[in-house]
Design brief:
The chain is of the alpha/beta class. The protein folds into 2 domains: 4-181, NAD(P)-binding Rossmann-like Domain (Rossmann fold, 3-Layer(aba) Sandwich); 184-347, N-(1-d-carboxylethyl)-l-norvaline Dehydrogenase, domain 2, CATH 1.10.1040.10. It contains 16 helices and 10 strands. It has helices spanning 12-23, 35-44, 66-71, 82-92, 117-125, 142-146, 160-170, 183-205, 210-231, 241-252, 257-266, 271-278, 283-297, 303-313, 318-326, 335-347; strands at residues 4-8, 27-31, 46-47, 51-55, 60-63, 75-78, 101-104, 133-137, 151-156, 175-180. It has an 8-stranded mixed β-sheet, with helices on both faces. It has a two-stranded antiparallel sheet with strand order 3-4. β6 (75-78), α4 and β7 (101-104) form a beta-alpha-beta unit. The structure holds 1,4-dihydronicotinamide adenine dinucleotide and 1,3-dihydroxyacetonephosphate. The site of 1,4-dihydronicotinamide adenine dinucleotide has 25 residues, from α1 and α4. GO terms for molecular function: glycerol-3-phosphate dehydrogenase [NAD(P)+] activity; NAD binding. Sn-glycerol 3-phosphate binds at residues 107, 138, 140, 193, 246, 256-258. Residues 5-161 form the Glycerol-3-phosphate dehydrogenase NAD-dependent N-terminal domain. Residues 182-322 form the Glycerol-3-phosphate dehydrogenase NAD-dependent C-terminal domain.
Length: 348
C-alpha cells in the first residue's frame, strides 16, 4: 500500500509539496477549507487560483474533511499561513497521534504571543509531540518546485530521526533536503527574511539600485542574526539555506509576494492596496509587527525592521525611511554579533 501523507491547506506551497510527494509515490490527501476549491482541484486537476500550470497528480485527492487528511497518514504536512497555524493545529487536535510525524512549512512568528511556529505547535498539540515535529524551510518558491526546478531546503527538528524521516520523505533528484537541529534558528530565518524582502521591494519601488538592495540584504541579515542569537539560535544557521539562502531568493525573485508587496508600497500604494494586489499571503507584514516587539523585548537594535515598521504601520514615507537609515550614527560592521557569539559559546 502507498504511504499516506496528509497535507493541510491547499494554497501555493501546500499544492507544490503535494505534487512532489505524489510524484514520489505517496498517496496524498490534501485538506482545503473551501469546498469550491476542493471541487475545482479534484475535477480540473489544476489549482488555477494558487499554482496554475502544475498538473495535479492522480495520487492527490482533495477533501474538506479534516479528519480524512489525518486518518491513514504517517506524516501530516501543514501548509497554511502562520496566522492560521494555531487555529488549524487546535482543530486537528482530536486527530493527532503519537506515531505520526508533523511538518510545518509556515514562515512567521505569531503576532499576539510572539511564539515561533514550533512553540505554537507545542502549546496546542502538547510538548511530547515536539519530538515528532519538523520545520521545513529554505529558498523554495512554490512556482519553481511545482516545475521541478532544482531546490535545496532544510528540515529542522529537535530529534534527528524526525529530521531524517522528513529528509527522506521529500528528497528527490530535484529537491535536496538537509537536516538541522536548530529549530528556532531555522524558523526565525524563514520568518524574518520576509521583512527584509518587503524592504528591498520598497527600495526597488523607489527606483534605487542593486547597491541599495545588497546593503539592505546584508545589514538585514546582521539584524536577523543579532535577534536570533539573543533568542538562543545558532548563528551559523543564518549563514545557511534557511538564513541567507531564503533571504536571497525572497529579495530577488519576482515570485516573492513579500518583494512584490514592497515594490507596490515603494511606488506609492498603501499597505492595503499592496496586499490586495498580491492577493496571497504576505507573511512579512505581520512578522514586522512581531519582530518590532521582539526587538524591544530583547533590547536588540533592528534599524531596518524599525523603519519598515514605521512605513507599514505609522505612515512614514518610504523615502524618509531610507534617509533615516543612511543618516544613522557611525557603527562597526561585525563586532557586536562576534561578541554575542563568543559569549554564547562560552556559556555552552
Ligand atoms: N508560496 C511559497 O512559495 C512558499 C510559501 N511558504 C510558506 O507557506 C505558508 C503558506 O503560504 P502559501 O501556500 O504561499 O499561501 P497561499 O496564500 O498561496 O495559500 C494559503 C492557503 O491557506 C488557506 N488557509 C488560510 N487560513 C486557513 C485555515 N484557517 N484553515 C485552512 N486553510 C487556510 C488559504 O485559504 C489558502 O488556500 C506561508 O507561511 C508561506 O510563508 C513557504 C515556502 C514557499
Ligand atoms: O518563502 C518563500 C520562498 O522561500 C516565499 O516567499 P514569499 O512568501 O515572499 O512569496
Amino acid at each position: 500500500m502507498k504511504e499516506h501523507v496528509g497535507v493541510i491547506g491547499a494554497g501555493s506551497w501546500a499544492t507544490a509539496l503535494a505534487a512532489l510527494l505524489a510524484k514520489k509515490g505517496r498517496r496524498v490527501i490534501m485538506y482545503a477549507r473551501r469546498p469550491e476549491l476542493a471541487e475545482e482541484i479534484n475535477i480540473t486537476r489544476e489549482n488555477s487560483r494558487y499554482l496554475p500550470g502544475v498538473a495535479i497528480h492522480p495520487n492527490i485527492e482533495v477533501t474538506v474533511d479534516l479528519e480524512r487528511a489525518f486518518r491513514k497518514a504517517r506524516v501530516v504536512v501543514f501548509g497554511v499561513p502562520s496566522h492560521a497555524f494555531r487555529e488549524v493545529v487546535r482543530q486537528s487536535r482530536p486527530f493527532l497521534k503519537n506515531d505520526t510525524i508533523y511538518v510545518n512549512t509556515a514562515k512567521g512568528i505569531e503576532e499576539t504571543s510572539l511564539s515561533s511556529m514550533s512553540a505554537v505547535f507545542a502549546q496546542e498539540a502538547g510538548t511530547e509531540l515536539l519530538q515528532k515535529y519538523a520545520g521545513l524551510s529554505g529558498p523554495s518558491h512554490a512556482e519553481e518546485v511545482g516545475r521541478e526546478l532544482p531546490t535545496a531546503v532544510v528540515a529542522a527538528s529537535y530529534r534527528l530521526e524526525t529530521a531524517e524521516y522528513v529528509q527522506e520523505l521529500f528528497m528527490s533528484d530535484r529537491f535536496r533536503v538537509y537536516t538541522n537541529p536548530d529549530v528556532l534558528g531555522v524558523e526565525l530565518g524563514g520568518a524574518l527574511k520576509n521583512i527584509i524582502a518587503l524592504g528591498t521591494g520598497i527600495a526597488e519601488g523607489l527606483s534605487f539600485g542593486d547597491n541599495t538592495k545588497a546593503a539592505l540584504m546584508t545589514r538585514g541579515l546582521a539584524e536577523i542574526t543579532r535577534l536570533g542569537v539573543i533568542m538562543g539560535a545558532n548563528p551559523l544557521t543564518f549563514a545557511g539555506l534557511a538564513g541567507v539562502g531564503d533571504l536571497i531568493v525572497t529579495c530577488t525573485s519576482m515570485h516573492s509576494r513579500n518583494r512584490r508587496a514592497g515594490i507596490a508600497i515603494g511606488k506609492g500604494s498603501s499597505v492595503e492596496e499592496a496586499l490586495e494586489l498580491v492577493d496571497m499571503v504576505v507573511e512579512g507584514v505581520r512578522t514586522t509587527r512581531a519582530a518590532h516587539q521582539l526587538s524591544a523585548r530583547y533590547a536588540v537594535e533592528m534599524p531596518i525592521t524599525d523603519q519598515i515598521y514605521k512605513v507599514l504601520f505609522e505612515g512614514l514615507a518610504p523615502g524618509t525611511a531610507v534617509n533615516n537609515l543612511m543618516s544613522r550614527g557611525r557603527t562597526r560592521e561585525m563586532e557586536e554579533v562576534a561578541k554575542m557569539t563568543v559569549k554564547l559559546l562560552n556559556n555552552n
